[in-house]
Write a structure and sequence with these properties.
Rossmann fold, Substrate Binding Domain Of Dnak, Chain:A, Domain 2, 3 domains, globular, five-stranded parallel sheet, alpha/beta, 15 strands, six-stranded parallel sheet, 656 residues, binds iron/sulfur cluster, single chain, binds Fe(4)-Ni(1)-S(4) cluster, oxidized
Length: 656
């Protein structure tokens, strides 16, 4: 009986799950050893079709109400809510949740900054004074002749408003290109503090409040902008000030960074402070000696997901893989501890870790997981936690029982292109500016710029959509900026090296070869998507490409997204003026008014708009068409000379 049952259920071939060879090798090992991952669970659990279309509501207990996405206007909820109201409210709550994740993280960074500035925390310090001054100046804080402490104190007071301010505009609204900001003001969506916006969003989506999809969308934009130009941007800036602004560095990526003869520790999550402390702990002489006494050659630290993506560039720490590889990496049997903080940490890790006798350690009071070990991290005494994690890892190394198999895959890439570095790289030390980038866009060598970001998702073949899409974009002379798990997919495919320029179209290839840069620029974690907003603002300010972000020949995409944070990021890019395409699935019924609002009407209101496609080549086509449309509107489709036109020239062309 039992045998029959086993053969009855056909297993999905591993090659359908992922194009990451290391992950595939580990899923296969896991299958041999009876270990299940999210890939198997996704294959065995069909997504609920009503939920996938967002055609259900459980915002009150007269429901839950299910509408029919085949006949969206045939029925309403018990309260009378229409399909547009229901979908808009669900969308809005995803934005509130995603924005809360980023802004709560950002507020944590601001809390840390305050304690460092007032001297209560001594394990961290202000590492990048130049950045401190630049950020302060960008919001009008006087820096001339003042001490670091004075500037930092003012900056703290100012940036805290990003979260708490109850009226007026958040501080970084000052960085928004004037015409973009003017449009936000016109539509009443310049954000106040994130707490206020998220609270209002939750209120408005309560039963019986906002029941006008267009009005809900306004608050979606305002809440999302409080993240993009608020909580996330502050998180990035403060992290740079405290831990250093990234500049390009060659790093190793993929599961082959694990070392069989070392104590291996993986950090997975989102907050740089725990990771920074862990770096200090693994360099502790006594702990290295303890590891050696246990028979190891040393301690090997690697990051995963966004923690990894953010820290790899500051310290050259290797990266073991993206979101869909976190269970797989445990199957190597070589991980002696996995320490996590917040966000994107699958509960399924507990069971896999258990199978391989790997301690899974939660560190943040916000994120405990049943069955995991909790060692709380405290900014006032960070080493207490991270030293203990190292000790636990050494103990596990000594008692290794699991069969170890480490995939040999290691890829080397160059990452860490902060907005500051892009400025420097293209312009040189003495004339650091975006002029050369704009210049190359205007002369057509670079067709446009794309941000390709976001998660991996077991509903699509891991990494495949990211890699195919980016290849297609660079082949068409589109320069690609990357964050998060997407960046790691491309690094594993070898596209973050200067040598990858040979895959680019002739114009982009020439630029890459001249500057010595890859055609795909990794710039950090999802929180660092704010760096893309700054880069876009600089492009507008530099001139020749229109006077708002919506005028730029740029597009964004999250082709394998899975998190609510991604929806929030998408909405802040759209509200900032960027055409943003999502893959996998889109939680809205096609042919409805709300769909039309997001996918068409927002653009006519001076914003960007949403797009959706599953196939990477179709996504590329949508993005390139949009870039070409913007080039045409700027008069750049007529084979311009290699000159930087000023606004007047351009208007003359437009008028012609
Ligand atoms: Ni914050 S949100 S899976 S780790 S990018 Fe990776 Fe990135 Fe998505 Fe999560
Ligand atoms: Fe149903 Fe309306 Fe209640 Fe939603 S708010 S569950 S649509 S009755």
């Amino acid at each position: 009986m039992e045998i029959k049952k086993k053969t009855e259920k056909e297993e999905v071939p591993v090659k359908d799950f992922t194009t990451c060879d290391a992950t595939a090798q580990m899923i296969t090992k896991g299958r041999r050893e009876g270990v299940e991952t999210a890939f198997d669970r996704a294959a065995n659990m069909k997504a609920c079709p009503i939920g996938a279309d967002s055609a259900c509501c459980k915002h009150c207990f007269m429901g839950p109400c299910r509408l029919n996405s085949k006949d969206p206007y045939g029925k309403v909820g018990v309260c009378g809510a229409t399909i547009d109201t229901i979908m808009a409210r669900n969308f809005a709550r995803a934005i509130a949740s995603g924005g809360a994740a980023h802004t709560d993280h950002g507020m944590g960074m601001v809390d840390l900054f305050r304690e460092v500035v007032n001297g209560k925390i001594k394990d961290y310090e202000i590492k990048d004074v130049q950045k401190l001054e630049a950020v302060a100046q960008s919001i009008g804080i006087e820096t001339e002749g003042r001490s670091v402490k004075e500037i930092a104190t003012d900056l703290y007071k100012e940036l805290e408003r990003t979260y708490t301010q109850v009226e007026g505009e958040i501080p970084f609204a000052k960085r928004v290109p004037p015409k973009t900001l003017e449009n936000w003001r016109k539509h009443g969506i310049v954000p106040r503090g994130a707490m206020r916006e998220i609270m209002e969003m939750m209120h408005r989506t309560h039963m019986g409040v906002d029941q006008d999809y267009a009005n809900i969308t306004k608050q979606c934009s305002r809440t999302a902008l409080a993240d993009g130009w608020g909580g996330s941007m502050v998180a990035t800036e403060i992290s740079d000030i405290l831990f250093g602004t990234p500049s390009p560095i060659s790093i190793e990526v993929n599961m082959g960074v694990l070392k069989e003869d070392h104590v291996n520790i993986i950090i997975h999550g989102h907050e740089p402070n725990m990771f920074e402390s862990m770096i200090a702990s693994v360099h502790e002489r006594t702990l290295i000696e303890a590891a050696k006494a246990a028979g190891a050659k040393g301690i090997n630290l690697a990051g995963m997901c966004c923690s990894g993506a953010e820290v790899l560039v500051r310290h050259g720490i290797p990266h073991a893989g993206n979101f869909m590889s976190t269970e797989a990496v445990l199957i190597t049997g070589a991980v002696d501890a996995m320490a996590v903080d917040v966000q994107c940490i699958k509960q399924g890790l507990v069971k896999v870790a258990e199978c391989y006798n790997t301690p899974l350690i939660t560190t943040n009071p916000r994120c405990r997981i049943e069955g995991a070990t909790h060692v709380e991290f405290n900014d006032h005494d960070p080493k207490a936690c991270t030293d203990e994690i190292v000790i636990k890892a050494i103990t596990r190394f000594k008692n290794r029982k699991a069969k170890i198999e480490i995939p040999k895959n290691v890829n080397v890439g160059v990452h860490g292109f902060s907005h500051e570095y892009i400025n420097y790289m293209l312009g040189g030390t003495f004339r650091g500016s975006y002029t050369p980038l704009n210049d190359n866009i205007i002369n057509g060598r670079i067709r446009g710029v794309a941000g390709v970001v976001g998660c991996t998702n077991p509903r699509v073949k891991q990494d495949w959509v990211h890699v195919e899409l980016v290849k297609e974009l660079i082949k068409n002379d589109v320069l690609v900026l990357q964050t998060g798990c997407s960046q790691i997919a491309l690094a594993k495919a070898g596209l973050t090296t200067p040598e990858a320029a040979h895959l680019a179209g002739p114009g982009l290839k020439e630029v890459c070869e001249t500057v010595g840069m890859p055609p795909v620029l990794g710039i950090g974690s999802c929180v660092d998507n704010s760096r893309i907003l700054i880069a876009a603002s600089e492009m507008v300010r530099t001139g020749g490409l229109g006077d708002s972000i919506a005028d730029l020949p740029v597009a964004g995409c999250a082709p394998e997204y899975m998190s609510e944070k991604a929806i929030c990021i998408g909405q802040y890019f759209v509200a900032s003026g960027v055409y943003t395409v999502f893959g996998v699935t889109f939680p809205i019924v096609e042919g409805t008014k709300f769909h039309k609002h997001l996918f068409e009407e927002l653009e006519t209101m001076g914003f960007g708009k949403w797009g959706f496609a599953v196939d990477p080549h179709e996504i590329a086509r949508l993005m390139i068409n949009h870039i070409d449309k913007k080039r045409k509107a700027l008069g750049l489709d007529k084979g311009r000379e290699r000159v930087l036109m000023d606004m007047q020239d351009r208007r003359a062309i437009d008028a012609a």
